[in-house]
Each structure stands twice: as C-alpha cells, then as structure tokens.
Amino acid sequence: MASHIIVFGNEKGGSGKSTNCMHVTTALVRMGFSVGALDLDLRQRSFSRYCENRISQSEKHKLSLAVPDIVELPEIAPADLAEGENVYDRRLTEAVAAMEGSYDFIVIDCPGSHTRLSQVAHSLADTLVTPLNDSFIDFDLLARIEPESQKIIGPSVYSEMVWSARQLRAQAGLKPMDWIVVRNRVGTQRMHNKKKITDAVESLAKRIGFRVAPGFSERVIFRELFPRGLTLLDLADIGVKNLNISNIAARQEVRELVRALKLPGVSIDF
C-alpha cells in the first residue's frame, strides 16, 4: 500500500507551520500509524529540533513518547547525477522512494521560503497543509489584493506554484492534491477585520481550490512545549492531571485540525 504524503508548506515564516506539523505528526503516531518525517528546512531545522527535544525528554524522564522516524536526505555524489539533473531533486526523490510503502504516512515540513526542495515536495503532496496567520499581511501569501478595496486581483506566486504542482501530479497520473489552508491565531483582531479576512479567504478558496480549516490560537503553552519536545497530547503522560481551560481548549484545537485534514483511515480517538 502506498504511503500517504502530507506536506506542510508556507513561504512565510512565523505561521506556526512546524507547531502544526509536530502536533499532527504526533497525533498520527499516537493513534498507531507508522510515520516517517522529512525536514526540508536545512537551515533552521525547527521540526527536527522539536523531535530531538522530544527524544531527549523521553530518555531523561523515562517516558514513552510517540515519535516519528526522522529521515535525513541522502548525500548524492556529483558523479552520480545525470547531465542537467538537480541534486536537490535527486536527494528528495531518493529519500521518498526509500520511505514509500514502509510507512502509513510520510510527513514533510518545508522551509518558510521558496526553495527547490520545497517546490519538488509540493508536487509530491497527497495532502498539502498551508498554515496562515489570520491577517491580510499573511493573506498576501495566497493572493494579490487591491489595497483600497481589498478586492482579490489574482493568485500569488505561492498559489501559482501550488497550481504547477497540481499540474505535475495530473501529468504523472497521480490523484488530485487536497490543499488545506489552516487559519492560525484567529480572533486576535477586531470583529470587523476578522469578517473581512474570513470573506476573502472563503472567496479565494472557491477560486483556486483549497479547503479552509481551523488552526491554533495564540497561546503561551505552544511556545513552552517546544524546548521539551512536548505536544498538548502528552500532558497526561507527563503527570498533568488537572488541565486549565486554555489547555483544554488548545487540545480541542488539535483534534479539530486532525479531523479537518480528513486523512485516509484516520478517526479521532485521542
């Protein structure tokens, strides 16, 4: 059975992408799925460091925390490349080919910038998850808007890249990509502005073909968990018995996000 590939992509940093990625990945492992993971942010490696922190925490406190298998991109000798072949294309395709069929899910975390690796990864996505801060500054990732009327003029460079990735999948005979835009940090702005963003996102969703899913609110707990490699699903495992209202609400947000992705074979039981 082929692995289902989930790609977390956004060309703007600070959208909560790695946090979303870590919580979804951990949820899948906790539910008993085998998950292989690739971190394509070769510079910051936030997702890899999150997993490393998690392993360290598990060993230090003798916990049994669910952790995906982190897979490194293989090194390719220049002599092994065909004429005109891009080394990053080869590294990624070889890594995914080696993982294919060995895992239920392959999760790929892309950098918050446009790179060749990210571009290729998007064309591999069965499910593409694009976290977006709920503001017009970040909405610019998806579309160009007229500044006065805030009317949508056309798709952004990123949206056009996703369109190209979809075309490549169609040409290769692969099933259509399911693109989900995740709205993080909803509710921090005034209601009038919030409604305008909601209307703009929903209008664009119909035009360029993505689904909209609820993401994570701005909460201190997410920042506090990273150094220990923990997620909101682990609190009971580390002895936290009485969750406060904010933590309960945050854990529900994780459930809602996993449910919204509609991944094959996944039913919410955490």
TrEMBL record:
CDD domains: ParAB_family. It holds the Pfam family MipZ. It comes from the Bacteria. Coiled coil: none annotated. This is ATPase.
